[in-house]
Amino acid sequence: MEANTARMPIQTGPLDSVKTFLERYGLIALLFIMPVAYGIQDLSDDGNLARLGNNLVDGLSNGAVWAMIALGYTLVYGIIELINFAHGDVFMIGSLIAVGMFGTLGLTASSGAASVAPAIVVILAVCMVGAGLLNVMIERVAYRPLRNAPRLAPLITAIGFSFVLQNVGILWIGGSPRSSPDVIRSQSSVFEPFGVTITQGDLISLGATIPLVFLLVAFIQRSRMGKAMRATAQDPEAARLMGINVDTTISITFLLGGAMAGAAGIIFALYQTTVQFLSGFQAGLIAFTAAVMGGIGNLQGAVLGGFIIGIIQQISDNRIGGEWTPAIVFAFLVAIMVFKPQGLIGEETREAG
Amino acid sequence: MSEASNTRSRSALPVAFLKAHPNVAIAVVVGIAAVLFPYFFEPAAKPVQVMTEALAYVMMALGLNLIVGFAGLLDLGYVAFFALGAFSMGWFGSGFFSGAAGGEGLHVFVTGVAANLPGIHFNFLLIVVVAVIITTVAGMLIGIPTLRLRGDYIAIVTLAFGEIVGRIAINGDGIGLPGEATLTAGRKGITPVDKITLPFLETFEALDLRPWYYLALVLCLIVLVVNFMLRDSRLGRAWIALREDEVAAVSMGVPLVKTKLLAYGTGAAFGGVAGAFLASFQSTVNADQFLFQLSILILSMVILGGLGSIWGTVLGATTLAVINFYLIPKVFNEVPSKVGLNFDLTEINFGIFGFLMVIMMVLRPEGLIPERRRKAELTEGIGAGATTGVGGEEVREARA
Fold first, then answer.
1. Is residue B18 part of a domain?
2. Is B358 part of a structural domain of the chain?
3. Each residue of A315-335: pLDDT tens digit?
4. Please, which residues 32-91 of chain A have a Cβ atom closer than 8 Å to chain B?
5. Shortest CA distance to B197 belongs to which of B112, B133, B86?
């Protein structure tokens, strides 16, 4: 490469360096356009960055949910190279379980903290187990029989299952959004440094996400099963020869991904206080964008991508208008695919490269 | 093969020929039934309307089959082309741009009521040309970012484009054009849309659906013929080669960019024609209908019939269109409430399709009328995998 540019420095030199620069930093520059532009606008309008700061905080709280869903995408993609289209809907079912449990346990907006806290822990556990098992069931029914079929086949069953789950959601709560009790009083402010409001919702959203993410990463990097997962992701055939039960490992991967989606479901229900059957489809696409942005197959990348997408959405909701937010997120998705399909911190995959 | 059957048909009686070729017999019967169909009903009967819409969906499914079935590029945003076709009709065949030509209206080869209305009114044939141009260009533009990508990444990019087009359709009333016009009418929709005017014929009427039906049938036949010609052409073979093994095809000299973009472009053009026709038939361009679900409906038509199989796609599209637009809303809608369940079947129609897609893929992935080559591809991997579980490296390489 170097020899080439050295031989013809005048013809290709400057263009090459521009191209390399764009390839390396173009996506990052693109991501910074919106915050920086609106930051400057805020400074000139109000003289401080409080509005942008609020956008960032809200964006991080939303992004926590996307990050958890994106982890499920990235885990599954890493191990069987399948975009699990039904994953967003597993998250939606998780949020419906959460709202249903609020009703069962009699939680309302006026319940005291002493009764709310243990109840939430119970619901979190139920959501994680429920969504995890649902994901395992989907893998067993829709993906495992097709593991050796052409790549498009499991993708199509994934879309099929996504629709089935959406309609389960319709039958469960109906076609219109359902509001859930604001048990954590998510909008009440805790403290306000520099005019930026930090609410209880923000604290709970980030406070639940960060430990779960660390637990997951630790499990994958430290445990025996995590090692098996990494081995299967690298080379399923070799892993099998080394005595790893590949089918079980894949099931565990789906269980973990589903559990993260279930946890995201309850956090979403607590923070947004409305759930609907369509939220899973939207969330799935957003989270997939996040996973691709971070570099699919890469856990840290998925979390980073989730937070970045959360911030982009929040800025767009607040400044451009909520009706354009999906289009902007998808435009980012296309831009990533065009400029850097391997993502911010991902490696080149066969698929993207 | 066709030459052989031709010589034989000359020497033998028609009946004997049909006995030897049951497929031709079926085609003849179906053809006659399709031509006579509207005369079994009133001119404005519901079945005629449903079948006319079904024919439009057959066109779209054939277009998508060309992209997904022939070229192997999974397109999850096909609804974008339907939308663009419908908007071509809305823009150039309605009173939507009421300020056009100083409020007098711009009329090109139109007769009847539309000739005196404000807005832009082109003849339907011109609009079809416009729709084909717009959708072909759009198809190629959508294709460009996917050129470097493979497999499911293509699916995601096309999905994103489909969603962006849908969003623009819904929010387009906020996008201003010169002269106080907007890009779309937003959720209100563009309505009414001109009825179709063809040379030598009277303008079509909403109360007599037969001309609409026959026009759809003719358009379908044209699309079918083009499909067959493309499949057996050099270009069609290049598509199939790319689908089977991209690396090998490119190293054999198949031009990757041109071949892929032509697949997107032609596939999109069929969607555009169908969209323009449906917009006029339904007399509305409703921005809310351009949803991801519709892309999936069209995709399930192709899958049900058999990816890559032209007759399969026709069968799959007709079946699903009749199920979706007639059987579910009109015939079986009340069934769940009659057996004591608290919902209508229309609420869960996409769940039914989803279920169908899973079942089809697991049990009969080659579709109702499989394409021979595709069937061979599908069975190759499954036999090898039954014993090893996770695919051997050779199989993985072959389908990557």
1. no
2. no
3. 888 888 878 888 888 888 888
4. 82-83
5. B112
Residue B36: inside a domain: no
Whether A147 sits inside 8 A of B384 (CB atoms) is no
pLDDT digits (tens, 9 = 90+) for A209-251: 889 989 998 998 899 999 999 898 888 889 999 999 999 999 9
For A191, the enclosing helix (H) or strand (E) is strand A189-191
Q: Which residues of A282-302 are buried (b: 16+ CB within 10 A; e: fewer)?
A: bbbbbbbbbbbbbbbbbbbbb
Question: How is residue B220 written in tokens?
Answer: 């379908």
Whether the predicted pLDDT of B391 surpasses 60? no
- Whether B377 and A166 lie within 8 Å, measured CB to CB: no
Q: How many domains are there within chain B?
A: 1
- The pTM assigned to this predicted structure is 0.82
CA distance linking residue A169 with residue B348, whole number of Å: 10
- Could A175 and B356 be called an inter-chain contact, meaning their C-beta atoms sit closer than 8 Å? no
Of A326, A337, A341, Cβ closest to residue B163: A326
- Cα distance from A328 to chain B (closest Cα, Å)? 8
Residues A157, B146: C-beta atoms closer than 8 Å: no
SS3 per-residue string spanning chain B: CHHHHHHHHHHCCHHHHHHHCHHHHHHHHHHHHHHHHHHHCCCCCHHHHHHHHHHHHHHHHHHHHHHHHHCCCCCCCCHHHHHHHHHHHHHHEECCCCCHHHHCCEEECCCCHHHHCCCEEECHHHHHHHHHHHHHHHHHHHHHHHCCCCHHHHHHHHHHHHHHHHHHHHHHHHCECCCCCECCCHHHCECCECCCCCCCCCCCCCCCCHHHHHHHHHHHHHHHHHHHHHHCCHHHHHHHHHHHCHHHHHHCCCCHHHHHHHHHHHHHHHHHHHHHHHHHHHCCECHHHCCHHHHHHHHHHHHHHCCCCHHHHHHHHHHHHHHHHHHHHHHCCCHHHHCCCCCCHHHHHHHHHHHHHHHHHHHCCCCCCCCHHHHHHHHHHHHHHHHHCCCCHHHHHHHC
- Taking the CA of residue B199 and the nearest CA in chain A, the distance in Å comes to 41
Range of the domain at B153: 46-290
Residue B5 lies in a domain: no
pLDDT tens column, B267-282: 999 999 999 999 999 8
Q: Are A125 and A197 in contact (CB under 8 A)?
A: no
pLDDT of residue B206: 77
Measured CA to CA, the distance from residue A104 to residue A127 in angstroms comes to 14
pLDDT digits (tens, 9 = 90+) for B133-184: 999 999 998 888 888 776 678 888 888 889 899 888 988 887 777 767 788 8
Query: Residue B122: beta bridge partners?
Result: B108
All structural domains of chain A, each given as residue ranges with its CATH number in brackets, are 31-339 (1.10.3470)
Q: Are B250 and B256 in contact (CB under 8 A)?
A: yes
